Amino acid sequence: MNQQSNSAIDLEQLNRISEGDIEFEIEILQVYVEDTLPRIAEIRKAIANSDRAQLLIETHHIKGASSNVGAIQVLDLVNKIEKLEQDSEQSLEIIADMLKKMQAVELFITEKSSIFESSKL
Asked: 102 near 78, Cβ under 8 Å?
């Protein structure tokens, strides 16, 4: 697995699913972010409402999507939050970390887009 500690994305996994198509990588990561951010908000609500069923629905979806695009750091955090039994300070910290990792994915998209646009010139 090609995941550096500061990398938001496992580049080998992303390359496997995109078959090296940078434009496709950008598109799937954008869809991933657009879909995942609202789900993180739903996780926060589910925890606040002690709605374990909704929590599991949202985490299951994020786990699959994160694994597919190579967002391993987000996947690890989702696994942690899924194991928590109740609303706690720890759950808020994990959600904050998830949002930071999502920002890192967005930065990765921006950088990848810039490189792609430069290569088209």
From this structure: no
pTM: 0.88
Handedness of CA 47, 89, 100, 16 (dihedral sign): negative
C-beta separation of 75 from 67 below 8 A: yes
CATH topology for 11-120 is Four Helix Bundle (Hemerythrin (Met), subunit A) (1.20.120)
Q: Which of 48, 45, 76, 50 is nearest to 62 (CA)?
A: 76
- Taking the C-alpha atoms of residue 111 and residue 54, their distance in angstroms, rounded to an integer, is 34
**Environment class of 25 (CB within 10 Å of its CB; exposed 0-12, middle 13-18, buried 19+):** buried
pLDDT in tens, the chain (121 residues): 444 445 889 999 999 999 989 999 999 999 999 999 999 999 999 988 989 899 999 999 999 999 999 999 999 999 999 888 766 788 889 999 999 999 999 999 999 899 888 887 6
What six digits make up the tokens of 29? 């990561």
Q: What are the structural domain ranges in the chain?
A: 11-120
